[in-house]
Fold this sequence. Notes:
Strand order of the largest sheet: 4-3-5-6-7-8-9-10
Largest sheet: 8 strands, mixed
Order of helices and strands: HHEEHEEEEHEEEE
Number of strands: 10
Radius of gyration: 16 Å
Helix content: 25-40%
Shape: globular
Number of helices: 4
Low-confidence stretches: none
Oligomer: single chain
Strand content: 25-35%
Amino acid sequence: MDERATLRSHLDRPVQDAPNGPAVAAVIEAIAAASIHLSDLIACGPLAGITGRHSGVNPDGDLQKDIDVAADAMMRRALRATPVAAILSEESELPEMLDAQAPLCVAIDPLDGSANLENNISVGTIFSIRPRGNDILSTFFEPGTAQCAAGFIVYGPQTTLVLALGAHVDIFILDRRAGEFVL
């Protein structure tokens, strides 16, 4: 049988030798793990207590739904266990400072397009992993070329993780039976 590479085994190879490689791998794995739970929550919707009701307005002026708030909480919880100095989420106005000595910062939109859920249209998570600068806030304004990694996760008929890391872009699909992403 053809053995496909998992996200974890894929990250063990090229990332470990890169600057902040193990830290970047830990952040990617945390986001991927949270996205598996978010995928389940999206699929269950009302059965999991998600009503689609508006619960506020985010800093960009978009109406927040309960699923936006839940997605933000899931991603933040996952990232708090990683070497991240700060998280900047679309769902809050200012970065959440975690560990000022950690080597990375993460910018994330935990659930982009939540209004599409009413029509059963795909939604996603968008993220950027950046090296922490001397001034944490300015880290988030560096050009995209400063990123360590970036990606997006699409929640639809299948859950797909597209990851830009180094000079490569790879696509992983969630194997729901195994509970992990495969290349």
